[in-house]
Amino acid sequence: MTTTMENLDVMVLRTLHGWRAAGRRALLATVVRTWGSSPRPVGSIMALCDDGAVVGSVSGGCIEDDLIDRHTRAYAQERAGATGHEHRIPNGPPSFVKYGITADEAHRFGLPCGGTLELLLEYDPDPVCLAELIAALEAGRLVRRTVRLADGAVALAMATEPAELAVDSQELTNTFGPEYRMLIIGAGQMAEYLATMALFNGFAVTVCDPREEYRHGWKVPGATLVSAMPDDVVADFKPDRRSCVVALTHDPKLDDLALLEALSTEAFYVGGIGSRRNNEARRARMIEHFDQTEASLVRLRGPIGIYIGSKTPPEIAVSVMAEILAVKNGVALPRVMEVAQAKNDRDVAHNDPGPLVCAVRR
């Protein structure tokens, strides 16, 4: 388990900055409008270097291939000293390009039936401005980036809340947020699977476990491992609306106080591992000993995950990660997918003897 992946936008911007700081020509493409079905949402970005290297995505791959083909041929002609205009490298103000306008184009570029998207292409973005944006994101700030369409000039401003991309005849504004963060309480086997999947999905992961025997065996290098008491770690972590806290130790001394601390924050997801019985016992403890109420615990999730019949640590981690992503993406899962509800329904079905059949002897 060694795969790590940082926030995709940050990765694109950092790679683009590296190219530009090294004097390479490059462009930044942003999805600004979509019609019908689209493989990538508005606001998605990718960067393309003059040697054909690409990072990020604006489609399923075919549009990237077209951009790479057109622009790398232009860059190659420039290096060769060609004077023709067929593949002249764009520069200066940003430009718009549409893909998938006709059925033939939709088929050619692999767009879904009826799908159309429009990109804004920025040529040779200023590396100094890119460095400022990356530094702000790495510091955990939410940043509004505004591009003046007349000349490509960029202005950065700190934002207080996320906003949808906006574009008009004068400018484009896109809000970039800091990384989504996950704090895992417990460094056991399931935490390794969950941390790996969270890293792969672009979360910055911190794992807290004061138990040395568990920390000693930890082997996910992309995650930050800390040893303080979990409730203190939650307080220092300062969960915000882009943070989730997951307790996995099964030890009330470690999980309960951390979860209570997390419930007092804006974390978008707070949950603890455990069976239906353990979850009910946890809530009862919190109400009896920590002055909680059913209303104050409404955000506490447990048993966590979606019901997929999972039995093994990796399967359970998949179900938990799926639920976290659904909450992150604003998807309201039907109750039948909740672990507790699904198991209750299953138990009822197993205990139902079905219709009675009477055999009458003649």
Automatic annotation (TrEMBL):
This is Xanthine dehydrogenase accessory factor. Coiled coil: none annotated. PANTHER family: ALDEHYDE OXIDOREDUCTASE MOLYBDENUM COFACTOR ASSEMBLY PROTEIN (PTHR30388), MOLYBDENUM COFACTOR INSERTION CHAPERONE PAOD (PTHR30388:SF4). InterPro entries: MoCofactor_Util/Proc, XdhC_CoxI, XdhC_Rossmann_dom. Residues 19-79 form the XdhC- CoxI domain. Residues 182-324 form the XdhC Rossmann domain. The lineage of its organism: Bacteria, Pseudomonadati, Pseudomonadota, Betaproteobacteria, Burkholderiales. Pfam families: XdhC_C (PF13478), XdhC_CoxI (PF02625).
